[in-house]
Design a protein that fits this description.
Radius of gyration of chain A: 20 Å
CATH superfamily of the largest domain in chain A: SH3 Domains
Structural class of chain A: alpha+beta
Distance between the termini of chain A: 55 Å
Strand content of chain B: 35-45%
Oligomer: heterodimer
Radius of gyration of chain B: 20 Å
Shape of chain A: globular
CATH topology of the largest domain in chain A: SH3 type barrels
Strand content of chain A: 35-45%
Helix content of chain A: 10-25%
Mean pLDDT of chain B: 78
Number of helices of chain A: 2
Helix content of chain B: 10-25%
CATH class of chain B: Alpha Beta
Largest interface: A-B, 37 and 42 residues
Strand order of the largest sheet of chain B: 3-4-5-9-8-7-6
Mean pLDDT of chain A: 79
Distance between the termini of chain B: 71 Å
Number of helices of chain B: 3
Largest sheet of chain A: 5 strands, antiparallel
Strand order of the largest sheet of chain A: 6-5-4-1-7
CATH architecture of the largest domain in chain A: Roll
Number of strands of chain B: 10
Largest sheet of chain B: 7 strands, antiparallel
Order of helices and strands of chain A: HEEEEEEEEEEEEEEH
């Protein structure tokens, strides 16, 4: 009987010691949605590369958990259906596909922008494409610069359609359409980078 | 008579040297950096080019800026897609092409589109911003890889026909090759 109580005590101690580690390991996970836009399913792979390594296909609009972004944010380490795997991050979004329809860009005023602070990776409409940074939040204003897949920008304010972004490397600020940005880190983590 | 022949010979030699100076054939191979990739691209262009590879491109992508003295720069961008794995532009349905056209022009108010087939037979989609700040792109899908030529001036000024011709000459100089044994 004494041995039983000693064993139980040891088990409780191990659990108590490991719990904070388990919590911290997944503290930064975020729920994203599969958003392939053309409604195709997304391949989940056993490693972060294209090859003969598909372990699951995830239907469009499915919620998945992102543990971390890899390889200049082009791949995401995710959890889905009780398994770990990797998907191309350009097919993920924080908003569920088919959600709120964005307001037309013409009706946007700066007053509608809310402050925010997170890092986002640029996700052009084609994997090889580019995204315009504009001087103001409208498709009809001048192009300030262009950015390619994998570029990281700081989002400093946003509304439903546009984000005000800052590029610390070039020290320039401008506006980019929200649909071309994938949030990759929030809060203090973003501030530290 | 002898003097005339000498003059003629000198003229021919001068012309020959001048032509040799002007025609410089540069063959540049741009391999995809992803180790598993079975696709390589060779760019052949007649003339002087300065090609600058971006060190900031993700490791499974290639991005090279082609600088020329006279024309708007062209960025050649190559990236894999998981949605079109193993497919080429010609394999796509009308619906898929329509979708690609819509997304490719989605950041512009009034974009214009056209299709172009290269001498190698690859179908390219041409997207022009069609506004004051001119950025044009031509892209195709080859064996699951998007290959895109993006052209703009540093100040996004309007491009000329000569700029378009330069981009087209680069497009026509692209040669794809696939190692079928490595293909997925």
């Amino acid at each position: 009987m004494k041995r039983f109580w000693t064993g139980l005590l040891a088990f409780v101690l191990v659990v108590a010691l490991c719990a904070p580690m388990l919590v911290s390991a997944y503290a930064d996970t975020t729920v994203y949605y599969v958003n392939t836009a053309n409604k195709k399913s997304l391949n989940m792979r056993s490693s972060a590369n294209l090859g003969n390594n598909i372990i699951e296909t995830i239907p469009n609009a499915t919620a998945i958990v992102v543990y971390e972004f890899l390889n200049s944010n082009t791949w995401a380490h995710i959890g889905y259906g009780g398994r770990d795997g990797y998907v191309m991050s350009r097919y993920l979004s924080l908003q569920k596909p088919g959600g709120d329809t964005p307001t037309p860009s013409e009706t946007i005023s700066y007053k509608n922008f809310k402050s925010s602070y997170y890092l986002a990776s640029v996700k052009p409409s084609t994997p090889s494409g580019y995204v315009n940074m504009r001087w103001a939040p409208s498709k009809s204003t001048a192009v300030h610069d262009i950015y390619y897949a994998g570029s990281t920008l700081q989002v400093i304010s946003e509304d439903k359609t546009w984000c005000q972004v800052y590029d610390p490397q070039k020290n320039i600020c401008g506006f980019m359409m929200k649909e071309f940005l994938v949030p990759i880190s929030f809060g203090q983590e973003a501030l530290n980078q | 008579m002898k003097k005339l022949i000498c003059l003629l010979l000198a003229a021919v030699m001068t012309l020959g040297i001048a032509c040799a100076d002007e025609i410089v054939s540069i063959e540049t191979t741009i391999p995809l950096s992803q180790p598993e990739s079975p696709v390589t691209i060779t760019l052949t262009y007649t003339g002087n080019l300065d090609i600058e590879f971006s060190p900031y491109a993700p490791t499974d992508q290639v991005r090279a800026t082609v600088h020329s003295d006279e024309h708007a720069d062209v960025v050649i961008s190559i990236a894999p897609s998981d949605l079109y794995a193993g497919m080429s532009m010609a394999d796509l349905s009308e619906e898929d092409l329509q979708y690609l056209q819509e997304v490719a022009g989605s950041q512009y108010e009034n974009p214009s589109f056209a299709t172009e087939t290269s001498p190698e037979g690859n179908l390219y989609l041409f997207v022009s911003s069609n506004d004051e700040w001119d950025v044009d792109s031509l892209f195709t899908i080859y064996e699951g890889y998007f290959v895109e030529l993006i052209q703009y001036h540093d100040d996004f000024a309007e491009q000329t026909e000569a700029d378009d011709d330069f981009c087209r000459s680069l497009l026509y100089g692209i040669h794809f090759s696939t190692d079928a044994t490595e293909a997925e």
